[in-house]
Amino acid sequence: REHALLAYTLGVKQLIVAINKMDTTQWSEARYQEIIKETSNFIKKVGYNPKTVPFVPISGFNGDNMLTASTNCPWYKGWEKETKSGKSSGKTLLEAIDSIEPPKRPNDKPLRLPLQDVYKIGGIGTVPVGRIETGVLKPGMVVTFAPSNVTTEVKSVEMHHEQLAEGQP
């Protein structure tokens, strides 16, 4: 419950529910349906649409329905979910993970780079540090910082001490 609420609060748009330890219930279809009903009601209250969430019965300990379909649950016909690009379906947790659509990066929007820190390094100059939320940052661009209205040219873009041709969200 807390994970679904936290995920939604942090902006996670896509969800997979893996119903683990199905081997301890002898792969009971009734228990599987009960968990789907309870979980669907809860995630609906949080803000997710249960039709977009695959529910996969698994046994992590035995590896059932993780990579390949299990023979222990002949009643399980597979999961199905609706997305913006259509319906997708599968049987295993791996297929559910593969069905996750990568989020669209907001590269087409104006540059927004909230600063986390500014370092003044002798021989190099002033180094602003932050995460690009929208837009693209390239060496040679002229940028203006708000609210100070300081304008400067970008000399280089780096991430973890590695130079980049451009920075993106």
From TrEMBL:
- For this UniProt entry, what's an example GO CC term? cytoplasm
Per the annotation, which location comes first and is thus the protein's main one?
cytoplasm
Give all residue intervals belonging to the Translation elongation factor EFTu-like domain.
Answer: 125-167
Q: Which GO terms describe its molecular function?
A: GTP binding; GTPase activity; translation elongation factor activity
Subcellular location per UniProt equals: Cytoplasm
Q: Which UniProt keywords apply?
A: Cytoplasm, Elongation factor, GTP-binding, Nucleotide-binding, Protein biosynthesis
- Limits of the Tr-type G domain: 1-102
This protein's name:
Translation elongation factor 1 alpha
Organism from which the protein derives = Paraisaria amazonica
Q: Which gene encodes it?
A: TEF
